[in-house]
Amino acid sequence: MIPPFRIFKPVPNLVFAPGAISQLSASLQEQRRPDGYVVYIIDHYFADGRLNEIIAAAESDVVHYLDTTDEPTSAVVNALRENILAHQGKTPDVLVAIGGGSTLDTVKALSIIFTNKGKAEEYQGWDLVSQPGILKIGVPTISGTGAEVSRTAVLTGPLKKQGINSDFSLYDSILLDPSLLSTVPAAQRFYTGMDCYIHCVESLSGCFINEFARAFASKALDLCTSVFLKDGSDADLMVASLMGGYSIVYSEVGLVHALSYGISWAFHIHHGEANCIIFNALERYYPQYVEEFRQMVDRQGLMLALPKGLTYDDALFEKMADIVLLMQRPLHNALGADWRNLLPKEKIIEFYHQL
Amino acid sequence: MIPPFRIFKPVPNLVFAPGAISQLSASLQEQRRPDGYVVYIIDHYFADGRLNEIIAAAESDVVHYLDTTDEPTSAVVNALRENILAHQGKTPDVLVAIGGGSTLDTVKALSIIFTNKGKAEEYQGWDLVSQPGILKIGVPTISGTGAEVSRTAVLTGPLKKQGINSDFSLYDSILLDPSLLSTVPAAQRFYTGMDCYIHCVESLSGCFINEFARAFASKALDLCTSVFLKDGSDADLMVASLMGGYSIVYSEVGLVHALSYGISWAFHIHHGEANCIIFNALERYYPQYVEEFRQMVDRQGLMLALPKGLTYDDALFEKMADIVLLMQRPLHNALGADWRNLLPKEKIIEFYHQL
To answer: Fewer CB within 10 Å: N-end or C-end of chain B?
Structure first.
């Protein structure tokens, strides 16, 4: 199929089952070459080794615990490739990502630069990747970002924060095991779940919506509210994340994501929390949803605010507004074709001043 | 991934847009070899040629209008292959199916026997196909069966009615164009839509359900009721069909499908209508759903009943019950592991007597 009709490409292999991770090891046997090896990139949250037994890595495998304090950078991805190649002397057979959006996106980018020359930052943009990456399996341990099903690996490079958007960013397999979510800290679970809620709101409220994306977004939204207003299950949250992810794959995010990029960049606030702070201030644009969102925030006992003691000046606000204005598709989706007139730079700066 | 956790495989390429069929021709150019050809298998409903201009088949292509009065048989599939090969002297590059469940399933099977030796009936069963088929594109013109996303090509062979269940039955691409549904006769639209509604009920009520399949089934169910109780759109019906299909791919149908196979086989009643007749008689098993279903039937102004003047005897009922009892997985899903005791043959015969 060719443009203007976009092709929707889902993850080709998916397993959903509590306990499914226990079969990761056996399933990897099918993918290993006799003298090959597997690389596990695991969120450092699991660095105490509690997954060792389940993973059962072979002696020749590489297990790397990824520091996800900051969001993924191209520098970290490039260094991972160099270190692995220096240590092993050849490319791996399979990459396994176990973690949240940062870990999942890091492995997407890593997979690509094992088979495509140059550095990760050279592929930031749309469809710049020419070769399929190394086979990759994603195992989410927190739900909401939709990274497990998207064709985007969001990276901060030396020049910009932008995704590697490519069909080759898509996972070959994802293993959705809700039992892995059981130890996620409550605040983090909420902020990440709200990433899903918020991008569904943006998808449903935008002008790029169609019935396909609407069905996925509205179901994901229902699941999110049931999880956070009625103590729904981690399994439901996991399905919400998948459906919300598929919704934005076939529509677009909106004003919240655009504005949150500015504060994430300036103040190093994680994506999920940054979205919540921005969304809470956008009652005018998404009234009934913000009201429901505040009920969920209250029920979690959380307070949304920018961290105290931030330093900022006019120059910083200028730069933040420039970052927002790069988000052309989300802004078009949220405000219509006339978005440049409706959202001049001064209005963004004014919004940030009032936060 | 390996059993017991089933792998969910979706259709890898999907386009959803009103008018999307207008780009079929251009998109096929990418798949054609210089001296290759495309086979279009089109429901005979379109035999008046009204799709000719949109399809724009090349002179070397084959356009075949498929008689879908009866449901697909292995004999028809085998003959299609022989006729096409005799006429063209080589295998096609691409198969395009334009039609409902019968057309979609016929092309799934045809694709497989162009690259796998022997006859279609040799592949009825589970995972008997060893080679990928010819590239195939599905274009549904009626919605509800879920055939566009399933890995099953239901066929009546010389020995049995059973699906070719294989990963290679899955379409490579589907093109979901809701505008193609605009001329579907109302009764047929309803019976086919109810196929979706009913298999969602069976999925939600069965013991094989999980949160993944439940989310798809419950959303599809909501869309179906909105379409048939509130004049929802063809686009929503198309999305319901997809979601309902995905739900049963990862769970299972139930009592209705099992019992409807018997009357379809004995009295040549189409699958959608047969399901409705059976479901209407299963108030005891699916009470609140049957009530809602009857509201939808009433709103369509339809009367559900077996055709008049059917001839039957005890021997026929025996054979019908045998067919039902072959549906082990659906019966297990509907009634639990003890299904053989809960549904002895006499009980099925009694049910058919009372219809």
So the answer is: C
